[in-house]
Amino acid sequence: MDTKKTLAQIHEGKLRADALADVLAQAPFHSLTPILSEVFQRKAGGITPVDLLQDYDRRAPLFSTGTISQRELCRFQSLFFDVMPGDYESVCLSPAAPLGSCAALTKLGQNERLSALRRAELVSDSTVVLAAHAASRRKEKMNHPSAMYDTVNLATFHRLLRLQRFAGHPEWTQHFEILGTVTAGRQPGKNHFHQETVARHIQLWIDFFRHLNRNGYDFRHIRFAISYLPLMEQLLQAYGVDRQAVTSRSLQGGYDYFSQWGIPLPPSAPSLQTLDDFFSSQADDRPRRYLLQFEEQYLRRLRADNPDVAFSYELNRKLGFGYFTGLCFHGYATTAAGEEVDLIDGGVSDWTAQLLSDRHELTVSSSLGAELAVRLFRAL
Question: Are residues 23 and 69 in the same domain?
Answer without folding.
Answer: no
